[in-house]
Write a structure and sequence with these properties.
5-stranded mixed β-sheet; Beta-Lactamase; 5-stranded antiparallel β-sheet; about 25% strand; elongated; 2 domains; single chain; Heat Shock Protein 90; 12 strands; 10 helices; alpha+beta; about 375 residues
C-alpha cells in the first residue's frame, strides 16, 4: 500500500493549522492539497483521505462553491460567498460562508476558508451573554450593597421594638419583620458570593458530578433516578471545585424541582465527553470537556428560554431566579460557557470547559519523546 505523504506548509501558511475556521488549500485544478484540523472536524473528513481529491469529489453538487472559485480566480482577488449549503461525500450538509483567496505559493493556487453559520451565531451569542452577564453582575452587586445597610437598620429597629412591646402577642409581628430581614440578608449574601475569587486547583469533573449526585439523591431519594454516562479518560481541569459543584447543582436541582409535579419518577443523566477544537471566550482550545445535564421534565416555558440566565427570572412559582444566573457566573469564571436546549420531556444543559494545560502537557510529552530518541 502506497504511503501518503502530506505536504509541509510554508512559514507564511503555518498559522493555518491553529485557525478555528476550516481551511483548505487547493491547486489550480481543484485538487485538495491540505486540510487543517478545524476542517477535519467540521466536515468529518480525514486530511489524508481526501489528499489530492478534487473538490467535486469531496463536495459533490456544490455548484455555488465552483462559481465562487471561478469569480475569485478570474478577478484574482478574494471573493466571499455568504450562507450557502455545502454537502460532503459522506452526505453531511452544512450552512457555511466561504472566502476564496487566490495566491501563488509553489503548487497552491487558492485558499478556501469556511465558517459554519451555526458556529458564528454561537460566538455572537456568547459575546452577547458575556456582556449581559457583566452588566447584570454590576447592577446586582450595587443593588445588594445598597440594600444591606437599610436592611440591617430595619432588623435592629424591629429587635428594639420587640423589647419595648408590653403585649407579648404583638411580638409575632416583630418576628415576621426580623425573619424576613434575615431572609433578604441571606439573598443579598448569595448575590455577592459570585464576586469572590475562585480557588483554582486540579479538579476531576467526575468527582464534581458524584458530589452533586449524592446531594440530589439525599434530598429526593424516591423522586429521581440519576444515570451516569462518563468518559473516564478525561483529564483533570484547573478549576474551583466548590464553584463547579454549585454550578452543576443549581442546574440539576432546578430540573428536580421542575419534575416534582410529574407522577412518574424523574430521570437525570450526567454525560461527559471530550470536545475538540472549541472556541470559548474568543479563544480556540484544542480540547475541552463537554458536560451534558439531561432531564425528562416538562421543559422550560418558551417565553423565558432566552432569559433563563438573567437574574431574578424563574419559571417556577416562588423561585428566586438566581440558580442559573449563578451557575453561568461560575462557569464563566472558568472561561467556559453554558448552552440550553429544551422541549417538553427533554431538556439539556451543556457546560463547555477548556482544558487549558492540554497543549502544555502535549508539548512536554513530545519534548520527552524527542529527547529519548536522541539518546
Amino acid at each position: 500500500m502506497k504511503k501518503i505523504t502530506m505536504p509541509s506548509l510554508t512559514p507564511e501558511l503555518k498559522g493555518i493549522e491553529h485557525l478555528a475556521s476550516a481551511v483548505l488549500l487547493c491547486d489550480v485544478k481543484g485538487h485538495i492539497l491540505y486540510m487543517n484540523p478545524s476542517a477535519e472536524i467540521l466536515f468529518g473528513l480525514s486530511a489524508k483521505h481526501i489528499y489530492k481529491m478534487t473538490l467535486d469529489d469531496a463536495f459533490p453538487h456544490s455548484d455555488i462553491l465552483k462559481l465562487a472559485i471561478s469569480q475569485a480566480l478570474n478577478s484574482d482577488t478574494p471573493y466571499r460567498e455568504h450562507e450557502f449549503l455545502i454537502t460532503t461525500l459522506k452526505h453531511q450538509s452544512f450552512s457555511v460562508t466561504c472566502t476564496i483567496t487566490p495566491i501563488q505559493s509553489q503548487s497552491i493556487r487558492y485558499i478556501l476558508e469556511f465558517q459554519q453559520m451555526d458556529q458564528q451565531l454561537r460566538i455572537a451569542k456568547e459575546e452577547r451573554m458575556l456582556i449581559q452577564q457583566q452588566a447584570n453582575s454590576e447592577l446586582i452587586r450595587n443593588l445588594a450593597h445598597e440594600i444591606r445597610n437599610p436592611l440591617g437598620g430595619l432588623r435592629g429597629a424591629a429587635q428594639l421594638l420587640e423589647h419595648e412591646l408590653p403585649d407579648l402577642s404583638l411580638k409575632e409581628y416583630t418576628q415576621v419583620i426580623i425573619k424576613e430581614a434575615d431572609r433578604l440578608q441571606s439573598l443579598m449574601d448569595r448575590l455577592l458570593i459570585p464576586h469572590q475569587k475562585p480557588k483554582y486547583e486540579p479538579t476531576n469533573i467526575h468527582e464534581v458530578l458524584e458530589r452533586v449526585r449524592s446531594l440530589l439523591l439525599a434530598e429526593s431519594p424516591d423522586e429521581i433516578k440519576i444515570q451516569r454516562d462518563y468518559d473516564t479518560s478525561l483529564p483533570d481541569i484547573i478549576g474551583d471545585r466548590e464553584k463547579l459543584i454549585q454550578a452543576v447543582l443549581n442546574i440539576a436541582r432546578n430540573a428536580v424541582q421542575a419534575m416534582h409535579e410529574k407522577k412518574e419518577q424523574g430521570l437525570i443523566i450526567f454525560k461527559t465527553r471530550a470536545e475538540r477544537q472549541i472556541m470559548l471566550a474568543k479563544k480556540r482550545y484544542r480540547v475541552g470537556i463537554k458536560l451534558d445535564i439531561i432531564d425528562n421534565g416538562p421543559g422550560i416555558p418558551a417565553g423565558i428560554r432566552d432569559k433563563i440566565f438573567y437574574p431574578l427570572v424563574s419559571g417556577r412559582e416562588g423561585g428566586s431566579g438566581l440558580g442559573l444566573s449563578l451557575a453561568q457566573t461560575y462557569v464563566s469564571q472558568h472561561q467556559g460557557m453554558i448552552e440550553c436546549k429544551s422541549e417538553p420531556g427533554h431538556t439539556t444543559f451543556t457546560i463547555l470547559l477548556p482544558i487549558k494545560d492540554f497543549e502544555t502537557k502535549e508539548n512536554s510529552i513530545h519534548n520527552q519523546e524527542s529527547q529519548g530518541s536522541s539518546l
